[in-house]
Amino acid sequence: MITTLLTALKASIRTLLLIGALATVGAGVLTLGVGMDTPWAPWERQSDTMFPPALFTLATFVATVAFCTTTVVFHTLLRMVTNNPDTWWRASGVLFLATYGMYSFRTGTFEAAIMLNLLHLIVGLPALTLLPRVFRNQRHSYSPSATVS
Description:
By secondary structure, this protein is mostly helical. The chain has helices at residues 2-33, 53-81, 85-103, 110-139, 144-147. The chain has one domain. It is elongated, with a radius of gyration of 17 Å.
C-alpha cells in the first residue's frame, strides 16, 4: 500500500506544485496587491491580531501543497475501496469547499472570509479539474490490486 501511495504522489507532484503556485499568486494578489484582510493569526487566539500578509502568502504555498497531497492520498485510498473514486473524491471536495466556505466567516473580518473563499476557489477548482487527469494517467502505470498484499 505504501508503494501505491508513493507512486500516486510521485505522479502528481508537478500538479501539486502548480496548484501551490496558483494559490501563492492568488494569495499575493488578494492580500498584498488588493490589500484584503487576512484571517486571525493562529498563534494569537485571544486577540484580533491578523496574519501578516507576506507570511500568509508564503504559508499559502505550504498549506496548499500539504492539503492537496492529502487529497491525493485520499483518492488513492478511495480507489482501493470503490469502483468510482473520482465521483466520491469530487463530491467530498465540493462538500469541503462549501463547509469551509461557511466556516471561514468565523476566522476574522467579513473581508478576510471573502478573501479565504476566493483563495479556496483558486485552489479548489484547479485541484478538482487537474488532479483527476493525473489519477487517470497514473492509473495505467500500475494496478492497485497488484500492490495490495
